[in-house]
């Protein structure tokens, strides 16, 4: 069976900016696939090319075996797209928006009515269906947008940053919803720059950075590949540098410890990479005690997707976000997204 | 806020897609036009203003030139009788010129993307929906002006006359709406579109026969006005208002380059609408392919 989404060597530039340099990925039918990366990594451009909004400079895109470039109309039928910015007409009611959506996908009238009712129910929107969508809260608007994206029963639901700007409650409602539609057999492709979101939701993830896929696999595969558990150690709440240096030299010699980094941004705390499933934690504590050093806090954790990103790019997602924020031209990007 | 999602109750099978492209085109166009009419119904102030404005023009302009010497506008007619045709055309023109604005806002707010990711039978349904909407509005405005003109003593053309007037308004609206949508897809944003509308609207009015007859104008302006499509809409309507017995052969305008008959004026308008639609086609194809 053809994969739900197949993207091969996608390339797209806007003027001199190479938004997508080389993106290839394969989304299997029935899975939730996450595209993780900092803002400006090329996630949205990839999705826009997939959804036929932007013509790629090079590369192949297929949706359930249908080329989105050669046969865009059929590909559009198989896709449901929920953009990052909620695009609703605030003068229309929720039900009217869904009626418009149904007509744009040519659903027969009787079927559309039934389907709209069931989507309103599925997203708990019945009480708001006949109110103007301009009166909705952010979470409600997102739910209406999700209902619209799913109305025509697409093979693949494509979501660009589905929970940006939502409160925690609405965010977990979106997550529950995505799990539910996955259980019903819909393939989900979403982008996010939230690690936890991808970690919680995605069966498989592609990490994308500066227009390229730098890692792809299940979240636990990727974490295993980075190797080692992480220990975060604080000698004191704010340890002096000398003391941190001393601790490092003591800990570096332990057999279970692979690497020790002093994080000056976090009050000279120590980040250790240790062999997984070892007794490193107690060994570290004993070594500190023997050296006469106190322990303010210590925690062991499996590597996160951020560690995967860090290992591949040499910077954390947060650093990449901050760097990207200073170089982006929002007005220019807005123009790119206008058609 | 209730955020618990109830599990799906129904699992509907995929609906059979209708394999009728024309039926699909009608379905899309109807739904898109319905959206515009719902917006109008919920924001009726634009319709109210759209009717009040031309009526004010009619009354104020008529009053402004009330004491102009009789015969100044030819054939012993009053200015009030003269101006009606100009206001009908100018109002329809203004409405159609603004047709691109909602589309531009849809582009800016990302709503257009919703239409562009949908498997539309033809993206020309977006154009068709706008044209239907603007044409309906223009005909309502025209009706209001015709009724008001009748009250002010300009008389009421017969059924054939009204039919030709409707035809003229529709042709003009079609051509100008197409141009406006072409601009909406070409210009970077609504500020630029409003700027273009601003510098087009009144100059085209003053460079037409809407306010004064051709014979009033200096030679160069006569040339400009007789090349202005608006004049070809105004003069036939004015002729119908001023003459009981008109035909396609009636001379409606004495242009510097020769006489223009009613039939010729209608042909020019048909040509204008067709050229406009063709002119924007490459632009629409790029944006709407």
Automatic annotation (TrEMBL), chain A:
The keyword Nucleotide-binding applies. Transmembrane segments: none annotated. Signal peptide: none annotated. Pfam families: ABC_tran (PF00005), DrrA1-3_C (PF13732). Residues 5-235 form the ABC transporter domain. GO terms for molecular function: ATP binding; ATP hydrolysis activity. Keywords: ATP-binding, Nucleotide-binding, Transport. InterPro entries: AAA+_ATPase, ABC_transporter-like_ATP-bd, DrrA, DrrA1/2-like_C, P-loop_NTPase. One of its GO terms (biological process) is daunorubicin transport. It comes from the Bacteria. Belongs to the ABC transporter superfamily. Drug exporter-1 (DrugE1) (TC 3.A.1.105) family. NCBIfam families: drrA (TIGR01188). This is ATP-binding cassette domain-containing protein. It comes from Oscillatoriales cyanobacterium SpSt-418. The lineage of its organism: Bacteria, Bacillati, Cyanobacteriota, Cyanophyceae, Oscillatoriophycideae.
UniProtKB/TrEMBL annotation, chain B:
The keyword Transmembrane helix applies. It is a multi-pass membrane protein. Keywords: Cell membrane, Membrane, Transmembrane, Transmembrane helix, Transport. GO terms for molecular function: ABC-type transporter activity. PROSITE patterns: ABC_TM2. GO terms for cellular component: ATP-binding cassette (ABC) transporter complex. Its main location: membrane. It comes from the Bacteria. The chain crosses the membrane at residues 44-65, 85-105, 126-152, 158-181, 193-216, 260-280. Signal peptide: none annotated. Residues 1-21 are annotated as: Disordered. Residues 45-287 form the ABC transmembrane type-2 domain. It is found in: Cell membrane; Membrane. Belongs to the ABC-2 integral membrane protein family. PANTHER family: TRANSPORT PERMEASE PROTEIN (PTHR43077:SF10), TRANSPORT PERMEASE YVFS-RELATED (PTHR43077). This is Transport permease protein. It comes from Oscillatoriales cyanobacterium SpSt-418. The lineage of its organism: Bacteria, Bacillati, Cyanobacteriota, Cyanophyceae, Oscillatoriophycideae.
